[in-house]
Design a protein that fits this description.
single chain; 41 residues; mainly alpha; 1 helix; globular
């Protein structure tokens, strides 16, 4: 499986999460397990 390049972020507060989302217009919040892999293609 080939995925697009990505950067993993793990903010510990809502404020950090909002700040990270604002840095890149293509950022997305995703959660889950193996069902995430198809979303990353």
């Amino acid at each position: 499986m080939i995925t697009h390049p990505f950067t993993y972020q793990a903010p510990s507060t809502i404020e950090e999460a909002v700040r990270e989302l604002g840095r890149n217009g293509e950022s997305k919040v995703i959660a889950g397990g193996h069902s995430l892999l198809p979303l990353m293609k």
